[in-house]
Structures are given as structure tokens and as C-alpha cells.
DNA sequence: GCCAACGTTGGC
DNA sequence: GCCAACGTTGGC
């Protein structure tokens, strides 16, 4: 099993939105970055754990989710009305992919980015690297365990 | 609102 | 293949 961190702006789609989604599951559509796509398409498997990160105001890890369906074509790229429309992607040759993400739980107290930066064990985390903008990124098993422990401690 | 970092585009 | 220009992300 692998571990990931996925970013979302809560104004766009929050962990609370995932709680309220049908079957508490959502397709992670709209990713238009090749590195992030490759992680989803090539490396994510159902059952992988996902740290759900809120970017923007009060950036923090809000809770835990999991990959519930392996990658399949992101059809929003084919829709001219969609914000993430990309005419280079077609049903015959899809360029963009998405996975389904299913809710597991909300941390009783979210772990703010500023706090994570103070945790010695997390100093090498991709999330904390300067200029990091990747919206889908791998998390090491150790980083994941440290974060889950912190989430328990704060509850 | 600002700005640094980064990815993409397109001319050459 | 290089690189300047541009758009976007995202923290502060």
C-alpha cells in the first residue's frame, strides 16, 4: 500500500464536501499537471491512503481518505463547457486521468501547515519544500505514520 | 494584494 | 534545443 497527499481548495471542494458526496466518494477530476497525472494513472491503487489537504486560507491536512478506484479517463477534459476543458484530450486518446477518492475520516483538529513545519520528522516532506505546487504527491510510510500519530494526539 | 516558484507555450 | 514570456499555484 502507498500513501499520498492530495490538495484541494475548500472553496472548490472540501473534505466536508466529500463527507456529503454520494457514497462519500468523488472522482478527482480537473488535474492538468503531468506529474500529478502520472502519479494517479501509474502508481495509485485502490486502498492507498490519501491525506486530504486544504490549500488557500488556513492551509492544513484536514483528514484521511483512500483511493477507491484506479485511474480512468477524466471526461471533464472533453467538455467545452468545463473549466478544465482540454481539446487535446479525446475519448480515443485521453490525455488526462483521475481516480476516485473515498472518505475515511476527518481529523478532530486539522494539522496546519505552519505546525507541520515545526515537526522534525517531517522536514523532508514534499509538501514542506519551498515552491512545491504539486497537487498530488507521494508521502512516505514514515511521514504518514507520524502525521496519523499527530492527528491522534490532537484529538 | 503581493510575490516566488514552477510549468507551459511558442518563437527562433 | 534554448529561453523569454506568460499563466497559475499557493503561502504569507
Automatic annotation (TrEMBL):
Q: Identify the keywords attached in UniProt to this record, alphabetized.
A: Phosphoprotein
- Work out whether the entry's keyword set contains Phosphoprotein: yes
What domain of life does the native source organism fall in? Bacteria
What InterPro entries does its record include? 5hmC_binding (IPR052181), EVE_domain (IPR002740), PUA-like_sf (IPR015947), THYN1-like_EVE (IPR047197)
From which lineage does this chain's organism come?
Answer: Bacteria, Pseudomonadati, Thermodesulfobacteriota, Desulfovibrionia, Desulfovibrionales
Q: Which residues form the EVE domain?
A: 2-149
**What is the protein's given name?**
Uncharacterized protein family UPF0310
Cited Pfam families? EVE
Amino acid at each position: 500500500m502507498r500513501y499520498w497527499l492530495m490538495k484541494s481548495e475548500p472553496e472548490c471542494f472540501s473534505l466536508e464536501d466529500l463527507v456529503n458526496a454520494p457514497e462519500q466518494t468523488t472522482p478527482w477530476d480537473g488535474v492538468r499537471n503531468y506529474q500529478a497525472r502520472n502519479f494517479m494513472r501509474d502508481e495509485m491503487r485502490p486502498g492507498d491512503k490519501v491525506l486530504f489537504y486544504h490549500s488557500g486560507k488556513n492551509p492544513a491536512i484536514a483528514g484521511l481518505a483512500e483511493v477507491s478506484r484506479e485511474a480512468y479517463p477524466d471526461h471533464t477534459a472533453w467538455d467545452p463547457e468545463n473549466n478544465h476543458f482540454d481539446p487535446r484530450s479525446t475519448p480515443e486518446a485521453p490525455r488526462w486521468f483521475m481516480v476516485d477518492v473515498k472518505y475515511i475520516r476527518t481529523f478532530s483538529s486539522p494539522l496546519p501547515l505552519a505546525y507541520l513545519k515545526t515537526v522534525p520528522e517531517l522536514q523532508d516532506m514534499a509538501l514542506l519544500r519551498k515552491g512545491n505546487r504539486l497537487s498530488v504527491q507521494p508521502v512516505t510510510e514514515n511521514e504518514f505514520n507520524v502525521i496519523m500519530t499527530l492527528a491522534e494526539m490532537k484529538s
